[in-house]
Amino acid sequence: MIVSSTQSDTIVPDATGSASVEDALDRAIALHDEKKLDQAEVLYRDILGIEPEHAGALSYFGLLQAQRGLADDAVRLLRRALVSDPQLAEAHNHLGLVPAASRAPHRGAESP
Length: 112
Fold this sequence. Notes:
Elements: E1 2-3, E2 10-11, H1 18-33, H2 37-50, H3 55-67, H4 71-84, H5 89-97, H6 100-103
Antiparallel strand pairs: 1-2
Helix pairs in contact: 1-2, 2-3, 3-4, 3-5, 4-5
């Protein structure tokens, strides 16, 4: 079962568990849209605890981290989302919202 921090947002899984994850993602995005970032984060983390490579949860959690100014975390999450689902438009869009300097590839010691 996935429960948000408000205890009123309980999502009971179906037989496969997949509908509950999608319901939880819908609820997390709604909380995110309402600027309830801490509550949204709880649900994103719950989803990723069940499905660690869930592209949608990774993408929106990455966006949340970018909004908090945690660009490195945001880029890491968004890149994981794109590995999981290279066609996920939201992940491409969210990555475009992270400051460009944070998206630059890390250069090794051999770089000037």
